[in-house]
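Page 47, continued from p. 46.
Same chain as before, 277 aa.
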Amino acid sequence: MPLLDVRNLKTYFYTEDGVVRAVDGVTFSIDPERTLGVVGESGCGKSVTARAIMRLIQSPGKIEAGEIFLNHDGKTIDLTKLTPMGKKMRSIRGNKIAMIFQEPMTSLNPVYTIGNQITETIILHQGLRKREARERAIEMLTAVGISSPEQRVDEYPHQLSGGMRQRAMIAMALSCHPSLLIADEPTTALDVTIQAQVLDLMNDLRKKFGASILFITHDLGVIAKMADHVVVMYLGKIVESAPVRDIFKDPKHPYTHGLMELHTFSKDVEKKTPGAH
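Result:
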């Protein structure tokens, strides 16, 4: 049974210039402990799909149709039936599904320490006491490879490097051990060396915590390194869906061919062996 099952999702934006069909009939699923890559150029609907799953679409946007089934605790819930800011959805958001955004400085509050922001999430969703939550925060900063976590936990976002801030975001997202981690272009702002480290870290943590990942990117090289299965989006629709090896060996859609030509790849896909992730 899939952990997440998205069916015919349509998310439209009603503007003065007309209706923008940002996501127009998207269907895909993610199995437990697997990584689905969503790839496409800017404006194809990748991030809107992620925000729809998180129920973070704001006016003038609206989920117009479709179902988003989340399976957890032996139950299946259609997230589209929940009130976006209601108690049930808030308990799922951050607890069962967590999201890492592209630029951590827009997601981390500059006036609170890293530790305060992680412990707030843990206290809210896990019900731990402040001291226990702080210990969990230090444990998660250690897990994501931040040196001197007992010191860093009391530092502010501006005191950390870009790579460390992104690691802190991953620590926050994983602090409640979610079933699904949505990563929206999480390494785009990082240099190549730090990017590779963060991708390796996410793969390791996915195995350690048994989470599934929805990984959004425009970079097919990243997809080669991260994903088990790939969906290619173009103008709000999925134009191709296949296991990662098949996409690289034998792409079917002209748009996928075009993406291939736009990018140069490392040999990650050649090294990737079935079942490696």
